[in-house]
Specification:
With 352 residues, the chain is of the alpha/beta class. It contains eleven helices and 16 strands. It has helices at residues 11-22, 35-38, 56-63, 85-106, 140-144, 175-194, 220-229, 249-261, 280-291, 315-321, 329-336; strands spanning 2-6, 26-31, 48-50, 68-71, 110-116, 124-127, 131-133, 160-162, 197-203, 205-207, 235-236, 243-244, 246-248, 267-272, 278-279, 297-298.
């Protein structure tokens, strides 16, 4: 099949393009190469076309004959502050809307969308007495006092995390999260209007070769690696016991290949995760050991909007796509501990 990959020069997009090409697909690659992700003056890689997906006229020629679009292009990460909102909305929301309209005009009816775990907001929690509950908000005063755990709204007891499936409530808590949910909403509406197929892959904490270093628009694993490369100890927020699912980028690429190979009617969101949860502190400590650097520092600091636990249920992706992550966390982190990172510009904001 002819597959258009947007964001093809990005951390995940590069791996997706390679995976699709290895399966014999005809891959068309486009990317805007934003400085916040690629650094100022980044050269366009061979085989990639420098295209802004918000520009329908520029995008349309590359859509000719495309059977499936793998939409990886997005401004990602926690960002710097609320001033990033226009960039998230422009590149992620508007860019997706233009892409969908261009797909309709070209007669392309299949989309594989790079979504994210952040659409869930906080994870799923259970109380021993009250079952599944929505936890009380974590206030700044609680966090400043070191009270990081989520608590039951009925008796104030500490809650236990449970697996989050794709039917969980969607409560985005950051600018990035709001933009990723908007992408899903546009894609769902497009699917209903056109009869098109959308597989929305909700990536969990992706790590691996090619992550951008030293930038607020990257993931926590890259921030730990960047610190270690500089000879500094990774800095861990809260008490380090926040639970996540870290998934190797090679598995994320494999999930995209599976989604291209399995057309699902209508709109289907799917968790893309390892199925092997761990804490942020454990990942930082393991990377420090593997890299040969200083042990992590647990700071007790916190960021507004951060969530305590998000742990995914991988069952539906296996059921519908036959996808199950193959890279264990030990092997994945061993490879990542010395894998090359990509240079970026720490203070560069995405341009609107």
């Amino acid at each position: 099949m002819r597959v258009l990959v947007t964001g093809a020069s990005g951390f995940i997009g590069r791996h997706v393009g390679r995976g699709l090409a290895a399966e014999g697909h005809d891959v068309v690659q486009v990317d805007l190469l934003l400085a916040s992700a690629h650094g100022e003056g980044a050269l366009t890689p061979e085989g990639v076309h420098r295209i802004d997906v918000r520009d329908a006229d520029a995008l349309a020629p590359w859509m000719a004959g495309v059977d499936v679009v793998c939409h990886q292009a997005a401004v990602v990460g926690a960002g710097i502050d609320a001033a990033d909102a226009p960039a998230f909305a422009s590149h992620n929301d508007f860019g997706t809307a233009v892409l969908l309209a261009t797909m309709q005009a070209a007669g392309c009816r299949r989309l594989v969308l790079a979504s994210s775990m952040v659409v869930y907001g906080d994870g799923r929690y259970t109380c021993s007495d009250h079952g599944t509950v929505t936890p009380l908000p974590r206030t700044s005063s609680d966090l400043e006092a070191g009270a990081y755990d989520c608590r039951c709204p009925f008796d104030g007891s500490v809650l236990s995390w449970a697996l989050v499936d794709e039917d969980a409530p969607l409560r985005p808590r950051s600018l990035y999260a709001a933009s990723k949910l908007a992408q899903e909403h546009y894609a769902l509406a497009w699917s209903l209007a056109t009869g098109g197929s959308v597989t929305a892959l909700r990536y969990h904490n992706v790590y691996g070769e090619g992550m951008p270093r030293d930038t607020p628009y990257s993931g926590v694993a890259a921030m730990f690696r960047s610190s270690l490369e500089a000879g500094d100890a990774p800095r861990v927020y809260e008490d380090g016991r926040q639970t996540r699912d870290f998934v190797d980028v090679r598995d994320v690429a494999a999930a995209n290949v599976a989604a291209v190979g399995h057309e699902l009617a209508g709109f289907h969101p799917l968790n893309i995760c390892s199925g092997r949860p761990g804490t942020i502190g454990e990942v930082a400590a393991r990377l420090s050991t593997l890299h040969g650097g200083p042990a992590p520092v647990v700071t007790g600091q916190f960021r507004p909007g951060d969530v305590r636990h998000v742990v995914a249920d991988p069952a539906r992706a296996e059921e519908l796509l036959g996808f199950r992550a193959g890279v264990g966390i030990d092997d994945g982190l061993a490879a990542f501990a010395h894998a090359p990172l990509r240079d970026a510009v720490p203070t560069a904001r995405p341009r609107v």
